[in-house]
Amino acid sequence: MRILVVEDDREAASYLTRGLKESGHIVDHAADGQDGLHLAMGGNYDVAVVDRMMPRMDGLTMVRRMRDEGNRTPVLFLSALGEVDDKVKGLRAGGDDYLAKPFAFTELLARIDALVRRNGQETVQTKLQVGDLELDLLSRTATRGGNKIDLQPREFLLLEYLMKHAGQVVTRTMLLENVWEYHFDPQTNVIDVHMSRLRAKLDKNFAEPLLHTIRGAGYSLRAAS
Amino acid sequence: MPLLELFRTATFRLAFTYVCLFAASVILLLGFIYWRTSAFIQRQADETIAAEIVGLAEQYRRRGVEGLRQVIVERSARAGISLYLLAGEDGTPIAGNVRAWPAGIASGPVNFSIERPTENGTESRPGHAILLTLPNGYRLLVGRDMKQVSEVEATIRNTLLYALGLTALFGVIGGAYISRNVMRRLELINRTSQEIMSGDLTRRIPVRGDRDELDHLAVNLNAMLDQIETLMTGMREVADNIAHDLRTPLNRLRNKLEGLTIGDGGTREDTIAALEGAIGEADNLIATFNSLLLIAEAETGAHRDTMEPVDLRDIVRDITDLYEPVAEQRGIKLEVSAPTSVPVRGNRSLLARAAANLVENALKFTPEGGQVRVTTASPRDEPPYLSVSDTGPGIPEEDRERVLDRFVRLERSRNTPGSGLGLSLVAAVARMHDGKVELGDNRPGLSAKFIFPRVLEATAAATSVNQQARHALPGPVAAQ
Are B308 and B278 part of one and the same domain? Predict the structure, then answer.
């Protein structure tokens, strides 16, 4: 994956570039919004990771310019500001996701992954399938191996999100933000409890589990290849 | 107070300006009187002289020079202030009470000095006269002794000087008195301010109680000082708390990292486990900082412009939906009572966060088999509220205020995870919404009530109209 990192802080930038390169990506770095805009317009990137506060041109302006000039590269905003209002501002300017500093690197990788794949699947699907698990978005039913699974409305949303990101790592924060639309981290392990409930419904009575816990990162729904 | 310093004071300068203005008006007034009086006396003298000349001319025309001389001798013999002199062509006196013709002038009006005999010799007095030349070449002087006029003028001049002197004297004394008085009180305010600046925030400016401007100033300054002191104390407490409560986790983090650098290192798995523990500590610290930041933002009202209409029922439903599996896992019954919609104005995200904190708190302290009840309602004549009650140990009455402060953790929660910021955040969010948090006894357990301000009249009216409209709709029974 070709990733553009736009970050003025030298230490943060080198941490990001090194980590992303180690994860197997090709990384370009710009130290301010103007250079970032220049690179984004010229290069063909899969995703841009953009800091909000930067000299010369801030992240919001940079992304707004990108969008004005027709560049659709997915953008993940990074910022120390990190409150809900700032998230809203970032998304309004044309960003696709928002991550508050400080963050776990696994969280960043999972979000980049989710952004890039979302960008790929433009078509509206009415049926999702992972292995022998099927989800019908119209009749709102789930089946595994032909057997119906009873799901609460929220569990359905949770499974839908997991299936849309099948094979990827989704973090607890991503689930909380996208399924419950909460932008805070609860002190208790609420997400884990929900996931173990869902797991009981999905994987019970089946030899091959679909829902996997990824240590130190989150969850992943995938069929054995 | 040294005199020089007195001159520098604002009040003295003000008093001095008044003195100057007053003196100027005294000068103007008396000057005007002097000018008018002296002009009047002068004019009167001129008119009298003119009348006499008319009379003497008549005598001269009828009786000639000899007749004129006789009249002049007669009139000169009378006591009075009229002056006469008939002189020959060369100015030699012939008759009259003036001894010599004024030097150098033959005709026209003249001011001159005359010698008058007194008891002890002669004196020189001012005179004013008209000089004429008769048709036969003789000269005639008709005038007035002006001593009285100049005396009146001198009196007025003196009065003016005395008045000026007195005005200045009273002005300076009065100004000094007033400025000393005001200065003493301002000085007191200054001295108190200096004491406060040098660190004694408990000092206050004395109030005299006579309700003048200076008293108002003192009262206002004192009120300001009270507020500053409260804020300072609060800030200091927060700083102390942060320093104290963050030192412990930082220390744990440091120990974990240090443990990695010493000893034989152990297996790779051990190292990774230790590093993960350190990351966990760091994450806890970040969460604590985030909470502190959020509390600070809620307290400064940074989110005030994000207020929107929110239904508390939706928030309660979503939050209980999120925590229901947790309650079930812990064997706690989570009950919801939200029969009607509860419209309020608020920040959706912060309200959800506050509700989540209350529910988390309740779940944390309620034993297995217990019950947590989340209620929201907007009773008639009462403000809307959201309450969470549990059947846990509760909080002793004397601690209920205290637990809303930052980092306060009671003895019973020493062994449970938490930062001591959960309820503080709820309280801060409540303050931001102009509401409050009330902790009460659930007998047994804790009842935490997040109370909103009363619904605005307009909103209430709209709601009641809606309800009336709904009542007015024909129901199925009425339609039959």
Answer: no
